[in-house]
Amino acid sequence: MTQPQQGSLFTRYMKAFEDSVKHTGACSACPGETPCADGVPIHDRFARLQDAYNARQKQQR
Question: At CA 48, angle to CA 50 and CA 33, rounded to 5?
């Protein structure tokens, strides 16, 4: 049996964006410049996927 294929980079990027926005909206500590301990991995994942997506877009031009 094969592993299920992960979503496209764009799909994962948009999901990470959604997770980041939802967390920021629900967390009183995160709207500032320094996210809370729970928010750090959420926001870091979004930033990594955003960088990867932007790099891929530049390669395709």
Answer: 90
User: Do the beta carbons of residue 24 and residue 31 sit within 8 Å?
Assistant: yes
Those residues whose C-beta lies under 8 Å from the C-beta of residue 46, and which sit 6 or more positions away, are 13, 16, 17, 19, 20
What does the pLDDT look like over 23-47, one tens digit per residue?
Answer: 999 998 887 788 899 999 999 999 9
**Terminal Cα distance for the chain, rounded:** 37
> What are 4's two structure tokens?
């299920």
Given a cut of 80, whether residue 7 has pLDDT beyond it is no
Count of CB atoms within 10 A of residue 30's CB?
19
